[in-house]
Amino acid sequence: xxxxxxxxxxxxxxxxxxxxxxxxxxxxxxxxxxxxxxxxxxxxxxxxxxxxxxxxxxxxxxxxxxxxxxxxxxxxxxxxxxxxxxxxxxxxxxxxxxxxxxxxxxxxxxxxxxxxxxxxxxxxxxxxxxxxxxxxxxxxxxxxxxxxxxxxxxxxxxxxxxxxxxxxxxxxxxxxxxxxxxxxxxxxxxxxxxxxxxxxxxxxxxxxxxxxxxxxxxxxxxxxxxxxxxxxxxxxxxxxxxxxxxxxxxxxxxxxxxxxxxxxxxxxxxxxxxxxxxxxxxxxxxxxxxxxxxxxxxxxxxxxxxxxxxxxxxxxxxxxxxxxxxxxxxxxxxxxxxxxxxxxxxxxxxxxxxxxxxxxxxxxxxxxx
Length: 369
What we know:
By secondary structure, this protein is an alpha/beta fold. The protein is built from 5 helices and 6 strands, in the order ααβββαββααβ. The strands form 2 sheets. The protein has a 3-stranded parallel sheet. The longest helix has 27 residues, at 25-51. The protein is flat and about 170 Å long.
């Protein structure tokens, strides 16, 4: 059956949801704020890659033809690094009794860390060596104290109990301890056996609380006679005198002024393994030299010997480089023997070889005084 146009159903158009603002002012303001927040964040996400690029192009933000210029600035990191401390290259002998502090700035190295000081400070002094009283004609600027290489004696314990000499007993008779009763006892007297009489008798020896008097040695120990030795006796002995700390003997140089720090006399020095090694080597040579001179009892007075030699990493004397002085043949040979006879010395450590190489030149000054 045909259908008329006016009777056909009207097609409805599809509608989409469109957000709208509320009629309430408070709600509408919140909606507007949320919309702007979303738009700003989207804008930042789109522009962030361009703003955070590492390379800078003037054309991006500066229009061509303007008076703007580009400057290249380079910052050198070496200009802001602190200056390195000077490498210690001069050996000095320290004082074992002085403080063990690390100095601020010095080129000295030794067997221990030490900071320069002296009992009476010199005001406004900038020196690094303490004041010493010595010889003006002796150049010895590496030693600040003098002593002896013998190890200091510690306080000895109390001596053991010493016993007196045993009392010799007569043949066939064992010596026993003397026993003395109280100074008085009862004694019967008279002819009548039924009567009693008393008489006070005092003994010359001090009483031991015994019932009866027994003759014997008052210093014996055993009352039965088996012990014949006297009671122990302790003989008082003086305490050992304190001795100077183990320090190498030497002739000090005269220095009129010292440092401004107060304390036990010391010198600025950094600890190093080579400093400890040199101190040990010097002590060995000193002991050997003193032994040679002590056995011969001959010493050339007012003279010196200078010896330079090359010491390798194995502790061996590879070469004698220089020998000079005015001590004559005996003084020169004694100094050479003090260096040669104890060799080879202790081998170097790996750290020492890494810093010093395979050998070093060492110079000794022997002063006969």
